[in-house]
Amino acid sequence: MNLADLTRADWQQAATDTLAATPTGLFLDGDFVVSNDVIESINPADGAVIAAVSAGTADDIDRAVASARASFKGGSWSRMAPRDRMAVMYRFAELVREDGRALAVLDTLDMGKPITAMVEDDLPTVADFIQFCGECIDKIEGRVTNTDSESLHFVRREPYGVVGAISPWNYPMLMAAWKFAPALAAGNSVVLKPAEQSPLSCLRLAQLFVEAGGPAGVFNVVNGLGEVAGKALALHNDVDKISFTGSTAVGKLMLQYAGQSNMKRVSLETGGKSPQVFLDDLPDLDAAVEAAIYGIYSNQGEVCNAGSRLLVERGIYEDFVAAFREKGREEFTVGDPLDPDTMMGPLVTFEAQKRVLGYIEKGQEEGASLEFGGGVPKGLEAGAFVEPTLFADVNNQMTIAREEIFGPVASILPVDGPEEAVEIANDTPYGLAASIWTADVGKAHRFVRDLNAGMVWVNTYDEADFTLPFGGFKQSGNARDSCMESVVSYTQEKAAWINIAE
Q1: Do residues 266 and 406 share a domain?
Q2: What is the DSSP letter of 470?
Q3: In what order do the strands lie in the sheet with 309-313?
Q4: Are residues 191 and 303 in the same domain?
Q5: Which conformational region is residue 154 in: left (phi greater than 0), alpha (psi within -120 to 50 degrees), or beta?
Q6: 483 is catalytic
Q7: How far apart, in whole angstroms, are the C-alpha atoms of residue 502 and residue 491?
Q8: Residue 472 lies in a domain
Q9: Which of 133, 304, 404, 483 is catalytic?
C-alpha cells in the first residue's frame, strides 16, 4: 500500500480503524496496564475527544523504573551481543514502516500535523533513524592509551542504565525516537514520558519494539501530566540520565530535579528564536524567500528551530518583504489535516491558539506592520487554527522578536550591514539555529564563526541528515540529537588500569 496514494476519505477511514484498535494504557514490562486516572486526547482540528488515555502517577513511574532497572541488571538487552541488538533495531525500523498508516494517522489526530507531512517526512525519518541507531551499535568504541610498558590502560564505554526520556508534542514520534532509539542502541533501558497532548503513537512504538524482539521491560511508556509523571521521572533516584525536549523553563526544572535527587545526567533541547540573515549580495532572492517561508510555516510554526526572525539588509528589504507577502500568503493551504492537500493544520491545543493570537495582538500593539494573516481562517473556527502571519518593520525589542511564539508568525527586521546583523542575531537568550544568505564566501565563514548558535546554515535552512548534530547553545540546551554523537551520549566512560608487570 502506497500511503501517498490515499485520499482524504481513505485517511478518515484509517482514523476510525486505528482509534478502534489503539491501546490507551501504560506500557509497562512489555504489556499494557490500565490506570484509574485518564487524560482526554483532543483532536485540535475540531475539538472532538479521540481517546481517553491512562494517566500515570508517581507510583506508575516507580513501577516503570523498577521494570527498566530489572531488565538492565538482568542483561537481556544491556549484555545482548551487539549484532543481535542490531538485528532487533533493524526489525523495529521495518515494523515502523509496515505500520505506517496507523502511526501517521495517530500523530495527525493527536496534534494536528498534516497527514502528508507525516507520510513524507516524519514517518520515514523515524524508521530511518531507528535503523541508523542500530547501525551505530557496533561502532561505539573505547580506546587503549599509550602507557608504560608494564601497564595497560583502556577506556570502555558502557550504558548508563535506566534513561528517563521526556518528549514533546510537536513531533510526537520523531522527537521521542531521537531519545529512545540512541538510548536503546547504547544498551540502556528506557522509561518514556510522552507529551500528554500526543501520547498515542509512542505507545504503539513501544509495542512494536517488543514485537521486533526487544525484551520486556527494556522500553516502557508512562503517559501522564508533566507536573506529575514527568516530575516524578526527573526526580527518581534510580534513573541514571534524563533526556528532555521542551520549553526552556521546564528544562531548567530538569536541572533542579537532578540536583535535588541523585545528580543524574541531564541532556536538554529547549527553546529557540532562530535568526535568518539575508544580505544584499545573496545569490537568489526568490530561493531565499522560499526558504524563509518554509522555515517558519512548516509544522504550523511549532518547531523549536523555526526561523522566525528574518534579518534583512536594507538594500533588499523592500523587495524581500514584497516577495514574502506575495508568495507566503498563499503558499500554505490551511485545512483538515487528514486531507492530503493540506499543508498547515491546527495548532496543538486551543490554549496554544489563544497564546499565539495573543502574540499577534501584541505585535500590532507594539507597532509592527501586519502584512497578512493574524486571525483564524474562515470556515475553520471549530478548530485551533491560526493563519500564516507576517509582520514587517519589527525591531528586536518587540515581544514578537524576543519570545518564542511557537506558531506560524514570521517577523522581518531591517538591518544595516553584516555587523549589525550579527549583533541582533545574537541578542537573544537562545542559540539553537541560524542561517546566513550571501554570495560572499568570506562573509559566510565569518557569520558561521560569529553566530552564537549550535547549527548554522549557509544559503539554505533546516537541511540535515544523520551526520548533523542537532542542538544549540545558551538557553537552547546542551544535547546533540539525531546523530552518532547522540548514541555515544547515552554511554559513560570507564577507565581500567592494569598492572601487567611480571
Answers
A1: no
A2: B
A3: 369-372, 389-392, 409-415, 309-313, 275-278, 433-437, 455-458
A4: no
A5: beta
A6: no
A7: 34
A8: no
A9: 304
Position 36 confidence tier, pLDDT thresholds 50, 70, 90: confident
Q: With the CA atoms of 113, 115, 120 and 122 taken in that order, what torsion angle do they form, in degrees rounded to the nearest 10? A: 40
R_g of the chain, CA atoms, integer Å: 23
One domain for residues 293 and 242: no
Please classify residue 362 by burial: count the beta carbons closer than 10 Å to its beta carbon, then call 0-12 exposed, 13-18 middle and 19+ buried. middle
290 tagged catalytic: no
What are the contacts of 456-459 at 24+ separation with CB within 8 A?
Answer: 457/433, 459/282, 459/283, 459/287, 459/288, 459/435
Query: How many residues are listed for the chain in this entry?
Result: 502
Of 269, 302, 313, 387, which one is the catalytic site residue? 269
Bridge pairing between strands 409-415 and 309-313: parallel
What pLDDT was estimated at residue 502? 86
- Rounded to whole angstroms, how far apart are CA atoms 447 and 417? 12
What's the CATH code of the domain at 47? Answer: 3.40.605.10
Strand runs labelled E in 314-466: 369-372, 389-392, 409-415, 430-431, 433-437, 455-458
Do 283 and 253 have their domain in common?
Answer: no
Phi and psi angles of residue 193, each rounded to the nearest 5 degrees, phi first? -110, 100
CA dihedral for 125, 127, 131, 133, sign (positive or negative): positive
Residue 157 placed within a domain? yes
User: Which of 452, 405, 398, 373 lies closest to 308 in space, CA to CA?
Assistant: 405
Calpha distance 100→323 (Å, rounded): 37
32-36, 227-231, 346-350: segment of lowest average pLDDT:
32-36
The number of domains in the chain is 2
Q: What is the pTM of this model?
A: 0.97
